[in-house]
Design brief:
Layout: H1 11-25, E1 34-47, E2 52-64, E3 69-84, H2 91-106, E4 118-138, E5 141-158, H3 163-172, E6 178-194, E7 199-210, E8 221-237
Antiparallel strand pairs: 1-2, 1-8, 2-3, 3-4, 4-5, 5-6, 6-7, 7-8
Length: about 240
């Protein structure tokens, strides 16, 4: 999209570079690769364009089809809050708000220097599935990189702090909240520190692009997800001879 970068050079990109470096430099390889993988951990979302930080949980289920390729499902659920300003909204919405504020000013009901700001709570869910490239050339760690393709759902609940903000919110979200679904795309990766054949500590980062509330917010945006937690492996060694 015009004015927006398609790729950001962030932690996932650095992890991919690290993965390639280790893959070419390390000689030992993992000999025990369990067929299934379950992960559950803490996750943190940040969307700088909206000054929005969210915290919650993240779960994954994976199937190791080959030593280098896994297929899995990914879900996360987070919540947080920010403040919305007219400058973040579509031009049509900005015009509606400006007209309403001007009408209030003409009636003498707008305080001098009034600036509209609406504190807003949000709950966000993500759903994704797809392939993941795994690099197992270094026994203590498993490195992985993946494309991120999926859907994101957010519920935004405004909490206006004054009667004027309440009047504006009533016109934009009569039900008291707004719900939006959108697709996203991006990339991610991470590292498993292998404590044993059945347990690892996972640290991962994802960077995705989306346009939630496109009827209200004027720009699409990048969201970064950072997650950490245990990964459990089971189902038998896929390298074992039958």
């Amino acid at each position: 999209m015009p004015g927006k970068p398609l790729i950001r050079c962030t932690v996932p990109f650095a992890l991919a570079c690290l993965a390639l470096a280790l893959a070419t430099s390390a000689s030992a390889q993992q000999k025990d690769i369990e067929r299934f993988d379950l992960y559950a951990g803490y996750t943190y979302f940040t969307t700088p364009d909206l000054n929005l930080d969210e915290h919650g949980f993240h779960i994954q289920a994976g199937y190791n089809a080959t030593p280098k390729m896994a297929i899995g499902f990914d879900y996360s659920n987070v919540s947080g809050h920010n403040s919305l300003y007219p400058s973040l909204l579509t031009m049509t919405t900005q015009l509606q708000i400006a007209t309403a504020l001007n009408d209030l000013a003409l009636e003498g009901l707008l305080p001098p220097g009034y600036q509209l700001s609406v504190p807003t709570g949000s709950t966000t869910q993500t759903f994704a599935a797809g392939p993941e490239l795994t690099i197992r050339h270094y026994v203590p760690v498993t490195i992985f990189v993946r494309p991120d393709l999926g859907a994101i759902r957010e519920v935004a609940t405004p909490h206006p702090g004054d009667p004027i903000a309440a009047l504006i919110v009533q016109g934009l979200a009569p039900s008291g909240h707004k719900i939006s679904w959108a697709s996203f795309y991006g990339f991610g990766g991470g590292v498993d520190w292998n404590a044993s054949r059945h347990l690892a500590l996972r640290v991962q980062v994802d960077e995705v692009y989306n346009h939630l509330f496109n009827d209200l917010l004027k720009d699409s945006r990048w969201t970064t997800r950072v997650s950490v937690g245990p990964s459990f492996r089971f189902g038998g060694n896929i390298l074992a001879k039958k």
